Amino acid sequence: MSTVDRKKERQRRKVRIKYKIRGTAERPRLCVYKSLKHIYAQIIDDESGRTIVSASTLDLDLRDKVKGSNITSAKVVGEAIAKKALEKGIEKVVFDRNGYIYHGKVKALADSARAAGLKF
Fold this sequence. Notes:
GO terms for molecular function: 5S rRNA binding; structural constituent of ribosome. The protein has 120 residues and is α+β, with helices and mostly antiparallel strands.
């Protein structure tokens, strides 16, 4: 019997999702990455290949509000990415969960970004 390699399975899901989700200048991609210690969010324009806005638990303005990678930290990062995006004039995005299950930290980040004004 073979064991399930969780990282490899997430990478497979990520590739499968990547074919369907593309960020454009009008509607860039909100990509989420989480590690055991931190959570990161980026808004990416895939046509030009550049990151427009980013936020994470490592940001200096968020460090005192968060501790580690938990659901409350994900909510704070979601609010921060939404505020930065709205300042840049981005209202609509495509959500890329990056192969993660839409549950827990990923769901908390998405819900707080929606509540702060992003549409997806």
